[in-house]
Design goal:
single chain; alpha/beta; Rossmann fold; seven-stranded mixed beta sheet; two-stranded antiparallel ribbon; 6 helices; 9 strands; 26% helix; 31% strand
Length: 216
């Protein structure tokens, strides 16, 4: 049996309830076979994929309000993939991606819990290419700029997976790497605009930052 604890929670997005299985808290750790360590995930960051962060709720609400028929959508750094679940229930063409070795297991479990058909999943390591992903019309992500190096690696990864006509939506809870990331996106030919957000999660965790919009 896995040596970590879980919890089940109901998250409401745009008046629809989603049943989510997540890690009990951020203190959980279990790296059987050192699979996470092999891709650079430390014990201190191992649990971060398995938590519903406030910024992920912000992204899920935003994409639930979009009209995306005919567009191919990619969620990067999906973690528990709340936004992917929302778009999938809406009937959108969504692919989830992450590089945590347990991300797909949690995704598949939450898909079943919400009585949905499988969501396509691909490994998305921002430091390498995955030719199986292909190109997308919309790329979304939340809290993906939490280390300085990601200002470059995330921008490069997005560009590799973008179609010629593409939109990008990133929710950034003021991690401090937004300016460098924006410069890298501009250098790759993207226009941009930002909007502020501030929310309080059901656990009374405040989160404020910006929703970053890019287009090419």
């Amino acid at each position: 049996m896995p040596d970590y604890q879980l919890k089940n929670e109901t998250i409401t997005v745009n008046h629809i309830d989603y049943e989510i299985r997540s890690l009990k808290d951020r203190q959980q750790f279990y790296d059987a076979g050192q699979l996470a360590e092999a891709v650079g995930i430390s014990s201190a960051t191992w649990s971060l994929f398995g938590v519903v962060w406030p910024s992920s709720r912000v992204l899920a609400l935003r994409v639930s309000q979009l009209m995306l028929e005919g567009k191919r959508v990619l969620e990067i750094g999906c973690g528990l993939a709340l936004s992917s679940l929302v778009l999938h229930r809406m009937g959108m063409d969504i692919t989830a991606s992450d590089y945590h070795p347990l991300a797909q297991d949690f995704l598949d479990e939450n898909v079943r819990a919400n009585a949905l058909p499988p969501i396509p999943y691909q490994v998305g390591n921002w430091e390498t290419d995955n030719p199986l992903l292909g190109g997308f019309d919309l790329i979304i992500g939340s809290d993906v700029l939490y280390e300085p190096a990601m200002a470059m690696t995330v921008a490069r990864f997005i560009d590799c997976q973008s179609n010629d006509d593409v939109e990008v939506i990133i929710v950034d809870p003021n991690r401090g790497n937004r300016a460098r990331f924006t410069r890298n996106m501009i250098a790759q030919g993207y226009s941009h605009h930002f909007e502020n957000f501030e929310v309080t999660s059901p656990e009374a965790e405040r989160c404020k930052g910006r929703i970053l919009h890019f287009r090419r």
